[in-house]
Every structure is written in C-alpha cells, then in structure tokens.
Amino acid sequence: MTIVLALLTSALWGFADFGAGLLSRRMASARVVVLSQAAAALVLAVVVAATGAYDEAGPRLWFAVGAGIVGPVALLCFYEALARGPMGVVSPLASAGVIIPVTVGLAVHGDRPGLLQYAGILVAVVGIALAGGPRLGGAAVHRSTLLLTLGAALGFGTVFALIAEASTNVTGLFLALFVQRVVNVGSGGALLLLTERRGRARAAAGPPHGTAEEPPSNTPTANGASTRPAWARMPAKLVLALTVVGVADVAANGTYSTAARLGPVTVAAVLASLYPVVTALAAHGILKERLQAAQALGAGLALAGTVLLAAG
C-alpha cells in the first residue's frame, strides 16, 4: 500500500506542479501560492467540519505549523523557477530535497530497506537527477533559476519530513493538512504583501527614462469608473485552475503522509519524489518541451528504481 500511495503522490504533485508552472506564467508566483492554498484551505475546512477532525488537536500539529511556514517559501521559489526555466529541468532538480526525509527515515525511524530497495533508491535518485538534462551548464537555465530551485528542494524536503510527523490517523491528517494550509496562507500572504509593496515602490519611483508609464490597475478610468484590482477580475476558469492546483497539492500531502506512516519513510519519500517525471512528461506532451537524451534516460532509471523498490 505504501508503494501505491507514494506513486499516487508523485502523480498528484507532478500535475499540480505543471498547472502551477503554467499559472505562474500568467500571474505573480506569490499570488499563485496564496490563492491556490486559500482554495485548498476552504475545501479542507469543510472536510474537517464534516469529519469532526478538530477533536484530534494535539502537540503533533506543531509539525503542521512548521510545514505551513516553510511550504510557501518553497512553493514561491519553485513556481518562480518553473515560470523562468524549462519545467523539464526545474522540476527534477527540485526533487533533490528527498535526501532530507530519507535521512530522517534512516536516522530517526530506523528504516532498514532491503538490498533491492537500497538499489532502487540509488537508481531512482540518479534517474531523478539525470532527468534534469544536460543543459545545466548552458545558457538555457539561468543561475538565479538554479538558486531558486535549490531553495525549493530544501524546503520541499523539510515539508516532507514535517508532514509525515503531523498525524497518526486519517482524521488527524485532515486537521493537520488544514492547519498547514491556514499557516500557508498566512505566511504566503505576508510574502505576497512584501513583494507587491516592493512592486508599488518601484512603480512610484517612475519608469526608466524614455519609457511610458502605464496607469495603476485601481486608478479611475477615463469615464471616472474605478478599475477593480486584478484578483477581483479573474475569470472563473482561472479560479477553477487555482483550486485544482491547491486541492491536488493537499491530496498529495495526504497520500504521502499516509504512505510514510504505513511503510518505510525512505521508500515513500523516494517514490513520491518521482513527480518530476510526471511534470516533465506533461511539459513534453502539452507544451512540446523537447526532452534531451539524458532526461529520457533519467525517466527510465527513475521507473527502474520504482520497480526495484516494489520488488524489495
């Protein structure tokens, strides 16, 4: 069951990341983080109320709070990197954070995978790294994009480790995920306000010499009417897309936490980290991003590592 849930986690995260990457090309990454997580929090609020999960409140929720603080920073770095660079490169590199929950599983939980599973972990991690492709030293991936991706990897690994400790049963998991999303919205909202305040400060300083300045979106129009802010003018399809991204991310956290509780954290973490393969394939199939030979080889090794983990 651990293997099935962890693979489901990778599929959910893969498609959520692909959707978030597309949305981050249409609006600010911080806005994608806050709005998608707010939509997920509303859905989880209904689930918590319907299941009575609030009775599960306890000290373990501090792990969810920690995940909620770290998560938005990691997501902001990741979505910004997805918007700047090729998804088929950024997503695999961000999964390098798997080393954090794997280390926790070995050092804290005493996980001792079998020989085949150790081989599967090694093959899968190498495959995930290769899936980044050979363009790391070229101009296709900017240094700032790589730094953002590294920050995302460290953040994701930390969230992996924290959310696995946040609950001991299903209803407790619902409450933990809800708390995590509420904190996500709070800390992500603070980041959004900070980035938008900086944007307004740059706008107030005036455009560079010789360029035209566009009027702010909330200033009166020519006929005296006030233009609504961008978030209030989002079409229904965009709201739905943000909701789907947020709910898929929540579902992935839930399936991962359950997988880590039912089986070795090391196995669950590595299999869940296969989501870059899903994102890369989606980018290839939908956006026609070209997969390099090393990326194709990496995807194959990642799948081979999955087979070894399952066989062990």
C-alpha geometry:
globular
Pattern of helices and strands = HHHHHHHHHHHH
Proportion in helices: over 70%
The helix count comes to 12
Class based on secondary structure composition and strand pairing: mainly alpha
Using the CA coordinates, give the radius of gyration: 20 Å
How many strands, what sense, and barrel or not for the largest sheet?
A: none
End-to-end Cα distance, whole Å, is 14 Å
Total of domains = 1
Runs in which pLDDT lies below 50 for 5 or more consecutive residues are 134-140, 211-226
Number of strands: 0
Mean pLDDT score, rounded?
75
Strand content: under 5%
Description:
It is a single chain. Helix 2 packs antiparallel against helix 8, helix 3 packs across helix 8 and helix 5 runs antiparallel to helix 10. Helix content is 72%, strand content 0%. It has one domain. It has 312 residues and is an all-alpha fold. About 7% of the residues have low confidence. The two termini are 14 Å apart.
Task: Identify the notable features of this structure and list them briefly.
about 300 residues; single chain; globular
Please outline the helices and strands:
Elements: H1 2-23, H2 29-51, H3 61-84, H4 87-94, H5 99-107, H6 115-130, H7 143-163, H8 170-204, H9 236-262, H10 265-272, H11 275-286, H12 293-311
